[in-house]
Design brief:
The complex is a heterodimer of chains A (322) and B (270). Chain A has eleven helices and 13 strands. Chain A has 322 residues and is α/β, with parallel strands linked by helices. Chain A folds into two domains: 218 residues, Rossmann fold (3-Layer(aba) Sandwich), CATH 3.40.50.300; 76 residues, 2-Layer Sandwich (Alpha-Beta Plaits). Chain B has one domain. Chain B is globular, with a radius of gyration of 20 Å. The two termini of chain B are 28 Å apart. The chains are: A alpha/beta (322), B mainly alpha (270). At the A-B interface, helix 3, helix 4 and helix 6 of A face helix 1 and helix 8 of B.
Chain lengths: 322, 270
């Protein structure tokens, strides 16, 4: 129990962005959010969130539904006025036309006029980009790569094809800032990989990318850093590998022989363990390799593991420390 | 130019619906016109009936002064005081309430504003589209009336520009209420409130001017009703003037400006 308290204290300090976080300075950040709070009546959707995203960086925003990811993005885009704090994009206000023309945005719940053809929708956005002095130079390339059906009405498209149209709109002017709310939602695995490739290309071109997802593997595949939002607060922020090292995992092992009850006591990061005959269950923070090594001499028949969701883990950690 | 791009896009997205409205309103106007000869031929009976109505009711129905069998009396009582402006009002309020609040409610506003486009430009673009669409449909249906009316004797005794004058004054009335729907929707993001607000103003304006004329001490209140500005101004024989055109048009602009101002500052709904 004392072990667990010490771990909690360590995580809480970490969650404050103190340890091991290489956030860019505000001066060079393309996205700079400081002490952002947003309330809807009595409901506090965001509470003191600060984060920066540098050019050429992909920042993954993780969190459960209702954690505040979309609210944060809507504040960043100027759809919502912050209750407190500041939001700066490309050192300015994202509602300025000049700044806006350099931002690509894909909302989580994409809605476009159902009766309009894809061509009409793209034409409208292309014209506005051109008027803002930022032509959609990449539109043709994107439309071909994403295989967007141009002649059909938006309302007649499948969810995946609708998502492609949204992606084309958000990416076509080679934006310097990309704000993507669950961009691979509804896409087949091949298209998911293509989208992640395009995001990687944008990162290589120097774009700052803020991407929300609830798919850990997606964040793992693309994010340079992640932040975990829980109940409107940024409870952790670090390179994903660091967070995964600190993630709790449950393990259930069936053995050929019954081990002694203290078999896992030597395992680093052990949170809890229970040995019942040949069945062992444990919760470990970080790598499971030591636990498996300790159990191997007893003949491992079957292993089942479950990684705790990051936001769940950090919420538990925060609650435990407070 | 951005405003024009927005306006054209707004109209283009609704081109089929607007075409249907245009054809429907032309059909309505033509049907009303072809009934005129039969009304004219039985004019004495109609006039006797109309004479039996209270003066205030006759005025509110646009038939004070002229016989219902006359072109002016028929046009005012059967078209310009009820069904014709009401149909265009429905179109105007529908477009006005959808322009911001409807788009916000169905979620399409978010992606539209993801483009490099100021909220103010979006709002004025859609207002211009609404104004242009209602004006075009009013003008086209008036042109249809101008073609079919002479053989039916429906323009006899009226100046050639009479129905155009009435059309512009009617459009100003439509714009006033459509602007109210637009502004309420822009300020609140709720289409139901926009429709309900504009409808309430129409009813209050129409019934208010009718009832105010029944009660002598309240008669001055009639002058506050946009319906009185339109119907009381003899639009078929007087050119659009300060009260019948400039006043409602100016109010429409002021109301719209207030709605756009609020829209530019408030949170947008999800």
């Amino acid at each position: 129990m004392s072990n667990r308290t010490a771990e909690n204290a360590d995580m809480t300090a970490y969650a404050g962005g103190v340890a091991g976080v290489s956030a860019p300075s505000s001066d060079r950040a393309s996205i700079d959010i400081a002490d952002l709070a947003k309330s809807f009546g009595d409901v506090r959707a965001l509470d003191g969130v600060s984060l920066q995203v540098a050019p050429g960086e992909v920042y993954g925003l993780l969190g459960a539904n209702g954690a505040g990811k979309s609210t944060l993005m809507r504040c960043l885009l100027g759809y919502l006025n912050p209750t407190r704090g500041t939001v700066r994009t490309l050192a300015g206000n994202s509602r300025d036309v000049d700044i806006r023309s350099r931002i690509g945005y894909l909302p989580g719940d994409l809605r476009l006029p159902l009766r309009s053809s894809v061509q009409d929708i793209l034409r409208f956005h292309t014209r506005l980009q051109a008027r803002a002095g930022r032509p959609a130079t990449d539109a043709e390339n994107l439309l071909t790569r994403l295989d967007v059906p141009m002649d059909r009405r938006f309302g007649a498209l499948s969810k995946g094809n609708r998502q492609k149209v949204g992606l084309a709109l958000s990416l076509m002017a080679a934006p310097e800032v990309l704000v993507l709310d669950e961009p691979t939602s509804g896409l087949d695995p091949h298209m998911q990989e293509l989208v992640l490739d395009i995001v990687r290309e944008r990162r290589a071109d120097g774009a700052a990318v803020l991407l929300s997802t609830h798919i850990l593997s997606e964040a793992e595949a693309i994010a340079d850093r992640v932040g975990v939002l829980s109940r409107g607060k940024l409870v952790a922020e670090a390179p994903l590998s660091t967070l995964l090292d600190r993630a709790q995992q449950s393990i259930e092992v069936a053995l050929d022989e019954a081990p002694p009850p203290t078999v896992l006591d030597v395992v680093p990061g052990l949170m809890s363990a229970a040995v019942q005959g040949t069945e062992v269950t444990a919760v470990v923070t970080g790598s499971l390799s030591e636990a498996i090594r300790a159990l191997a001499p007893y003949g491992v028949r079957r292993i089942a593991t479950r990684a705790h969701e990051l936001d769940e883990m950090f919420q538990q950690t925060r609650d435990g420390a407070s | 130019m951005t405003t024009l791009t927005v306006a054209l896009s707004f109209v283009r997205d609704r081109r089929r619906s607007l075409l249907a409205w245009t054809l429907g309103i032309i059909a309505l106007v033509l049907i009303m016109a072809v009934f005129y000869p039969s009304i004219r031929d039985t004019g004495a009976d109609f006039d006797a009936y109309v004479e039996s109505l209270p003066e205030s009711v006759r005025e509110s129905l646009g038939i004070s002064g002229a016989s219902i069998a006359s072109p002016e009396g028929y046009l005012m009582s059967q078209m310009y005081s009820n069904i014709y402006p009401l149909v265009i009002l429905i179109l105007g309020i529908s477009m006005g309430s959808w322009a911001i609040a409807g788009a916000e409610g169905d979620g399409t506003l978010e992606m539209t504003l993801a483009a490099p486009l100021r909220r103010v430009s979006l709002a004025w673009g859609r207002f211009v589209a609404m104004a242009a669409a209602t004006l075009a449909i009013t003008a086209i249906s008036t042109a249809a009336l101008a073609v079919i009316a002479p053989p039916l004797g429906l323009l006899d005794g009226l100046p050639w520009w009479g129905i155009w004058s009435a059309a512009f004054s009617m459009w100003a009335l439509v714009m006033l209420y459509a602007s109210a729907a637009f502004a309420i929707g822009a300020a609140t993001g709720r289409r139901a409130w926009a429709i309900a607000g504009a409808a309430a103003l129409i009813v209050i304006g129409f019934l208010g001017q009718m009832f105010a004329s029944l009660a002598q001490p309240l008669e001055y209140l009639r002058t506050t009703s946009p319906w009185y500005w339109f119907l009381g101004s003899s639009p078929l024989t007087e050119p659009p003037g300060l009260v019948s055109f400039v006043l409602p048009a100016a109010l429409a602009l002021i109301i719209t400006m207030a709605g756009v101002w609020r829209f530019d500052r408030r949170d947008l709904g999800a």
